[in-house]
Structure formats: structure tokens, C-alpha cells
Amino acid sequence: MISTEADLAKASVLVADDDKDFRQAVAEFIEMEGWQVWQAQDGEEALDFARAYKPDVIILDQRMPGLTGTEVILHMRDRGIHTPVVFISAAREISALALSVSVNCYLQKPFGINDLITLLNQALQGGC
Fold first, then answer.
1. Which domains does the chain have, with CATH numbers?
2. pLDDT tens, 47-57?
3. Within 10 Å of residue 32's Cβ, how many Cβ atoms?
4. Peptide bond before 110: cis, by omega within 30 degrees of 0?
5. d(C-alpha 41, C-alpha 19), whole Å
6. How far apart are CA 46 and CA 48, in angstroms?
7. What is the distance in angstroms between the CA of the first residue and the CA of the last residue of the chain?
8. What region does 80 belong to: left with phi over 0, alpha with psi -120 to 50, or beta?
9. 59-to-11, 43 alpha-carbon distances in Å
10. What is the three-state SS of the chain?
């Protein structure tokens, strides 16, 4: 759990989304906020990054090639990885999908970057 504003600036975030333009825009904004950011273009890569780099939080899209976001979460848990996730999707059923894998922080695309930052802070504080 991250406890201070200074710690938040040192936090690491994995952005996993197959939409390259969206992923890069989100990553650039988060980097401008002072966080370390990694990017994954699909579910398999997200799982590999989660295992290798152990980010403080993961922004995870549902619809990606290979593994979906929910499948990534289930694989992570099977491997003992309990990194907080901010789940994102254009799917209307995002809330049901998120709750099906016990993720409390989720956003439906399109969303405002301030909403994402709010949820990232919640996740980094242990609220997701």
C-alpha cells in the first residue's frame, strides 16, 4: 500500500490495452504525473509484465487479443499475484465483469482522465 503523496509519485503502473493510441495517451498522462509506466498490448503481455515487474497497480482493458482482462486477473490470482486493478472497457457490462472477478475499481470507456487518476489513487491506497 502506498501511504504518502511522495510515494504516489514513485508508484508503478502497467497500462494494458490493445488500442495503441489509447494506451500510449494514458501512459503519457500518467508519466507526466510522475509515475513509472509500463505498457502491454495484450493479455499475455500484461500477465508477463505483472509477473516480471510487479507494478503497484494495473490498468487493464477487458477486450484484448489472447487473454481477456478477466482471464488475466484469474491467471494472476492463480499465480499468487494480487496487484490492484483498475478495470476498463467500452462494454456496457463492465460493472458485472469487474464484480465477477472481485474488482471494485472500474471505468467504462470513454472516461475522463481525472476519473482514472482518482481510481488509480484509490487502488494505490488499497481501496480496490
1. 5-124 (3.40.50.2300)
2. 999 999 999 99
3. 9
4. yes
5. 7
6. 5
7. 11
8. left
9. 13, 12
10. CCCCHHHHHCCEEEEECCCHHHHHHHHHHHHHCCCEEEEECCHHHHHHHHHHHCCCEEEEECCCCCCCHHHHHHHHHHCCCCCCEEEEECCCCHHHHHHHCCCCEEEECCCCHHHHHHHHHHHHCCCC
Give the pLDDT mean for 119-126.
91
| Grid cell of 102 as nine digits | 472481485
Bridge partners of 58, per DSSP, are: 14, 85
CA-CA distance, 128 to 119, in Å (whole number)? 8
The pTM score is 0.90
C-alpha cell at 20: 495503441
| CB contact set of 28 (below 8 Å; sequence gap of 6+) | none
